[in-house]
Write a structure and sequence with these properties.
about 850 residues, 6-stranded mixed β-barrel, binds ligand MGD, about 15% strand, CT_DMSOR/BSOR/TMAOR, 6-stranded mixed sheet, single chain, binds molybdenum atom, alpha/beta
Length: about 850
């Protein structure tokens, strides 16, 4: 259910008997909101000290300084609270007039009407119930993908799903946008998902690696954040790596990224986008034909090399995957391909990779090929060797600390109702004497039919538009068939799908299909503008919460203290869903809130459970204090790593004994050839890594457009978050999203630095501001993801959201990941009068 498995494992806890003690504390906390001074909280971008004056936020800065690397995201809390906010509950005019015929085609263009909160709650409860009665639970979609805010209690997506489960069930989704391809292919190859797993520890890398390769990876940007909250030690280790003259750094990326600029001594190699698999095959071919690969490792630790070789050598298709063959595809000289391969086998080499190149057509291939290459090099499981798919993310490789992990709110299970429509319990709970009580369930009990009814309809997350447009369509997914449900009600919180999903124009059509769309949002994002009913939501600075930092390191427990009063009529997601429960069915709220728990009850409950667990570790000296003391001191609890975690080597045990410590693959070995995938019989993902031509790329015949657009993750935002802050002034060009174009290309197109340009293809068009630079290779442009879509009035996105131009097809039938880094576009100087930017303006509000 939850993408970051690291955070899972909330044990079911005893219910609090007297809720009142912590309520008292909550009241105290509210009264004592600091009017002048500093408050500690945390965001995805780290622990923050927020400065308050007369009850208003002045500014914010990092709570601690762990590295010299500047993280701009940490300084804009003021705008996060006061800018572009939704003030009141709002309903789209046509929806309010007639929810049964709400003119969905007007979504995004219609006028809005302010309504009373209680009325909005009643409306949503009534229409949700109506949809379920008419079309069943499988017509309610609450997958609600997105990055929300940090905090284990006010976790908007889980809070939504808790409500949707308890009130009857919903359709969810599978996988995520980040690693859609890799997280499905890697279990077949390595027996684990790899992408969200701890890496060989940094101290081991710094001690042993002689070559560090960063393949399609920009940690200087992407390590600014973490799923929980950044612990910031990832940066520290990259700084140490830079100081080390004895470790060679090689960066493979079409773009001269922040990371390439930081490692100014590094070798920077710029392949044609989406061709890395070919380059890797060229390396493998050379290693094989020259006999310079680790034959013992291949024999002892891998499966199916013999069935891959005929392809590598060209016996199956008359095309040997030689360095010369690869060079023609990836644009890297064959000599360089060979010398790199030889460097890797003859030095202890860590192949680090980001995820950009698997967010592309046939995105299953590059990481599968990388694992195969790493196998031939033969250093997997050795100190400082092998590969790692998470050094760029959430402080991967920062040694795991000894201590505790704070639990979080869970999605509960599906509710059961009596004939009168009253809530009577779930498979593991019941309402007894007006109280919610948990029941013991016997393991192995049959799962009731109503419980699986909706989960069977879950579809891969990035197929959302396809699913909305094609109810009943059957698709292939990782060896299974999935039938799209007929979705008529969408509830989204904590995400910005009108920005994050590919091919916005198709997506807009899809969002105009269901009868009802409800969104909880702090800001007037494009997704809020595409809804029928909008609840203004608090930001994390307007409520109390608790989080860990460093998804793998588990370094700190941070109190996230309410900084200021709630903005206008905004409410916590928890409050909104509690009120929806009350309006939906008798006694439902008892289950939702476990008999009335408030934010502090949950915070304390999670903290206490961890405190107890930590105290039960023999002879463990730690900083944790009883909850009240912890909360009052306004400081994080910090745990330390152990000698064992400092020395930890990924796959070290497998290396020592591959029989005893077999991998979770069918063969127990690294699968270069997968019989499981072979049996699926897919034409777009075969049984071993292969080069497939992407649907659009620079080397194709009859290119539909001239430039390859990469839309990587923005350095100065978290996706679309922080878009509306004044940090935007630092990077916007011509008041639009900057687009990087190579000097030579710009000259040919008559484009100058700072020009307003039109980027377009058959799918759509956007305006952007030109940055003319050799930081991007010729024929490639860079337009980062996350600019708020601004095309509701004209069809042309005036702000420069790249997803207007990307392709909405799956990576392959295996993983169905998104392919946002695969798209050809044209670019020209914009002629005529520049249209006004409206991305950050309120929609039309009539009453
Ligand atoms: N072209 C292209 N597209 C991409 C990508 C790419 O590389 N290229 N990357 C993809 C990837 S990996 C990802 S993860 C996605 C990211 O896409 P999203 O996760 O959808 O992006 P965010 O901007 O983080 O959206 C989070 C939203 O939640 C809101 N929010 C924050 N806190 C709360 C809260 O407490 N309650 C509620 N109700 N709302 C809250 C924020 O205001 C914001 O609007 O984008 C994907 N799209
Ligand atoms: N500051 C900041 N940090 C973030 C995020 C953010 O929005 N802002 N988002 C977070 C999230 S949700 C995620 S999923 C991760 C994303 O982490 P990644 O997916 O690793 O990030 P990207 O920026 O998409 O891609 C990384 C690099 O790959 C390069 N690249 C793209 N295509 C190719 C290719 O075909 N070949 C090669 N060799 N390189 C290629 C890009 O130019 C880029 O420099 O980042 C996380 N960190
Ligand atoms: Mo992501």
């Amino acid at each position: 259910m939850q993408r970051r498995t690291v955070l899972k494992g909330m044990a079911s806890l005893p219910l609090l008997s007297g809720v009142t003690a912590t309520n008292l504390m909550a009241n105290e906390a509210k009264k004592s909101l600091i009017k002048n001074g500093k408050v500690l909280t945390a965001a995805h971008w780290g622990m923050l000290d927020v400065e308050v004056k007369d009850g208003k936020i002045l500014g914010s800065r990092p709570y601690q300084k762990t590295s010299e690397i500047y993280n701009a995201l940490q300084y804009y809390t003021h705008d996060m609270v006061y800018k572009t906010r939704i003030k009141y509950p709002m309903v789209r005019k046509s929806y309010l007039e007639n929810p049964d015929n709400p003119k969905p085609e007007l979504r995004g263009k219609d006028e809005w009407v302010r309504v009373k909160y209680e009325d909005a709650i009643k409306l949503v409860a009534r229409e949700l119930k109506k949809t379920r009665e008419q079309k069943g639970n499988q017509s309610v979609f609450a997958g609600s993908y997105g990055w929300k805010s940090s905090g284990n209690v006010h976790n908007s997506r889980i809070l939504l799903q808790r409500f949707m489960n308890l009130s009857g069930g919903f359709v969810g989704d599978l996988g995520d946008y980040s690693t859609g391809a890799s997280q499905v292919i890697m279990p077949h190859v390595m027996g684990s998902i790899e992408v969200y797993e701890q890496q060989t520890s940094w101290p081991v890398v710094l001690e042993n690696s002689k070559v560090v390769v960063m393949w399609g990876m920009n940690p200087l940007a992407t390590l600014r954040i973490a799923w929980t909250s950044a612990d910031e030690h990832g940066f520290k280790y990259f700084e140490e790596l830079k100081k080390r003259k004895d470790i060679e750094v090689i960066i493979i990326d079409p773009i001269r990224s922040d990371t390439v600029k930081f490692f100014d001594k590094a070798k920077h190699i710029r392949p044609v986008p989406n061709t890395d698999t070919a380059m890797m095959l060229g390396m493998m071919h050379h290693l094989y034909t020259s006999g310079k690969y680790d034959k013992e490792f291949m024999a002892g630790y891998t499966y199916g090399f013999d069935k891959f070789l005929p392809y590598l050598l060209g016996q199956t298709d008359k095309t040997p995957k030689s360095p010369e063959w690869a060079a023609k595809i990836c644009g890297i000289d064959a000599k360089l391909i060979k010398s790199l391969a030889e460097k890797f086998v003859s030095n202890r080499t860590m192949l680090m990779s980001g995820w950009g190149m698997q967010r592309a057509h046939h995105g299953e291939q590059p990481h599968w090929a990388l694992v195969t290459l790493a196998s031939m090099i033969g250093q997997i499981g050795l100190a400082g060797g092998g590969f790692g798919l998470s050094y760029h993310y959430s402080n991967g490789g920062v040694p795991t600390c000894k201590g505790g992990v704070i639990g979080g709110v869970n999605a509960a299970s599906v509710g059961i109702f009596n004939d009168k429509g009253e809530f009577i319990g779930t498979a593991d709970s019941e309402i007894k004497d007006g109280k919610f009580v948990k029941k013991a369930v016997t393991a192995g009990e049959d799962v009731p039919a109503w419980l699986i009814k909706t989960t069977e309809f879950a579809f891969p997350v990035a197929r959302i538009a396809d699913a909305l447009l094609n109810p009943g369509k059957v698709i292939d997914h990782n060896g299974k068939k999935i039938t799209y449900p007929d979705i008529d009600f969408i509830y989204w919180v904590g995400g910005n799908p009108l920005v994050h999903h590919q091919d916005t124009n198709t997506n807009l059509k899809a969002w105009r299909k269901p009868r009802t769309v409800v969104v909880n949002e702090p800001y007037w994002t494009p997704t809020a503008k595409m809804a029928d009913i909008v609840f203004p939501t608090t930001t994390s600075y307007e409520r109390n919460d608790i989080t860990m930092t460093g998804d793998y390191s588990n370094m700190n427990i941070v109190p996230m203290k309410q900084v200021v009063d709630k903005f206008e009529e905004s409410k916590d997601d928890y409050q909104i869903f509690s009120d929806l429960c009350k309006a939906y069915a008798k006694d439902l709220v008892l289950a939702y809130t476990e008999n009335g728990k408030e934010e502090f009850d949950w915070i304390k409950e999670y903290y206490d459970a961890t405190y107890e667990q930590v105290n039960s570790i023999p002879d463990f000296i730690h900083e944790m204090k009883p909850f009240n003391e912890f909360w009052a001191t306004n400081k994080p609890v910090t745990f330390s790593s152990t000698p064992e975690s400092d020395a930890w080597i990924r796959y070290g045990e497998f290396r020592e004994d591959p029989i005893l410590n077999a991998l979770g693959t069918p063969s127990g070995l690294i699968e270069i050839y997968s019989d499981t995938i072979e049996k699926m019989g897919y034409d777009d993902c075969k049984a071993h890594p292969m080069w497939f031509e992407p649907i659009e790329w620079l080397g194709m015949k009859d290119k539909p457009a001239e430039f390859h657009m990469l839309s990587p993750h923005p350095t100065n935002r978290l996706h679309s978050q922080l878009s509306h802050t004044s940090l935007r002034d630092e990077y916007a060009v011509a008041n639009r999203e900057p687009v990087w174009i190579n000097t030579k290309d710009a000259k040919a197109k008559g484009i100058k630095n700072g020009d307003l340009v039109r980027v377009f293809n058959v799918r759509g068009e956007v305006l952007a501001g030109a940055v003319v630079t050799d930081d991007v290779m010729p024929s490639v442009i860079k337009l980062c993801e996350g600019a708020w879509y601004d095309g509701f009035d004209s069809g042309i996105c005036k702000n420069g959201s790249p997803n207007v131009l990307t392709i909405d097809i799956p990576t392959s039938k295996l993983a169905n990941g998104n392919i946002s880094h695969t798209a050809l576009v044209n670019i020209e100087k914009f002629k005529g009068k520049a249209p006004e930017l409206t991305a950050f303006k309120d929609p039309k509000i009539v009453r």
